[in-house]
Amino acid sequence: MSHRSFKTGTALMEQNITYKNHVLLVDHDNNHRTLTCGILECFSYRVTTVKLASTALSLLSRGKSQFDFLMENINSPDSCGFKLLHDAAKMDLPVVLLVDDNDVMLTMRALENGALLCINKPVTVEIVKYIWQHVLREKLSGFNENKQLTKMTTYDILQNGELHEKFTYAIEKLGEGRCYPEEILELMNVPGLTRMQVASHLQIPIMHDILKDQLNEASKSDDKESQS
User: Fold this and answer.
1) Looking at the 3D structure of the chain, how many domains does it have?
2) Per-residue pLDDT averaged across 80-106, rounded?
3) Distance between CA 6 and CA 13 in Å, rounded?
4) Tell me: the pLDDT tens digits for 154-169?
5) Are residues 22 and 108 in the same domain?
């Protein structure tokens, strides 16, 4: 593949990643807001613009799902810049902050409060070109954390002796071929336990071996009783 073809392919990949990604842009500086919006749209971002952080807070209160990331001028005249940052971070919405000057203390405070990235104004084409990489990394990081949390939750349940006993009892009671999550959950009768958690038990390889052994033992026991 030629260098030119590689660059073309990379550009197309970047465009596909940013295509229709919805950005909430907050900037009271009319000229800079228009400039930034234009650059974002050149990279196929879908942009919603507002002047004040308080207006953005109102939009976010309707749910973060409509936006992929937030880009805000932290120096909002309504003094809600950090409130917006804080609320967006709590919603796991990536935040790119725009600062009017190279204020190290402000940048440190913003990063400590959950900002993904702080960039000095004015925004340039080169900066916007690579923002998607930071946003994507943040989203993947959040996904992996949730995935790890799910694994930990499943692990904790398996280590619970009482739950484990109830689980295996339900398996033995139902018998081979009838071990469905709904039926196991009903037999266990444990408040707060979910079908998904029971299904996770069944999907763990070591549990398959344990259950197979238990069912075999139960079958042998039944055979002995029938022969006696």
Assistant:
1) 2
2) 89
3) 11
4) 444 545 567 778 877 8
5) yes
